[in-house]
Amino acid sequence: MSQVDILVEQLGKLTVLEASDLAKKLEKEWNLNYDEILQGAKSQTVEEVEEDTLFKVILTGFGEHKISVIKAVRQIAGLGLMEAKKFVESAPQELKADIEKEEAEQIAQLITDNGGTTEIK
Q1: pTM of the prediction?
Q2: What does the pLDDT average to over 66-72?
């Protein structure tokens, strides 16, 4: 049995008070500040949550209404006619990224109303 396995087994046998005491001693011995560590972890978690509030709309297809979808893509992305045509023909493509959910839903609805298909991620 390795030293790590033995240590894990021994730590598993500690009471809550003993584990708390161990944490305090390690904090002092290794010059750790758990409050700062926890604060850093919380801010990282907040950033991850904020990232989940931004969405992207992916054009997945145009069905039988290619021209209508091209017009909608031109309106959304501000592309010229040829760029929008190439964009639509090369679906699936990311139409718009890093937007709020409400805007993503509006864009998806506009594409759907014009005969295209989208996906929101």
Answers
A1: 0.57
A2: 92
